[in-house]
Hints:
Elements lengths: L2 H14 L3 H11 E8 L4 E3 H15 L3 E5 L4 E3 L2 E10 L2 E15 L5 E10 L1
Parallel strand pairs: 1-7
Antiparallel strand pairs: 1-2, 3-5, 4-5, 5-6, 6-7
Amino acid sequence: MNQATHIAERYLAAWNEREPAVRRVHVAEVFAPDASYLDPIMRGSGVDGIDAMIGAAQQQFPGCRFALHGTPSGHNDVVRFSWSLAAEAAPDAVLAVGTDFATVDAEGRLVRVTGFLDAA
Length: 120
């Protein structure tokens, strides 16, 4: 498995974790302490801010999960990957598709994520 895929899978696992305490651990492992996240709808900074933002998104889309869409790629310290969002009960009925660009540190933790909605 390449590094870009590994990073994207860990990132989406944090977004999909519903247990708040477990999600907080995932976020702290995936994101650098001073990380930032920005997309057209929301933003967060630091582990606490990003964890709270993910929790709010989960409340807005209950029963939904993110999945990789396509193959992640990367070079130098940048990773690009696409995702889809669908209800667990109907995974083929996609609600949204997006592409995220992330800068990673030497340990592979996300430092900055900028997300784009491709279709909603």
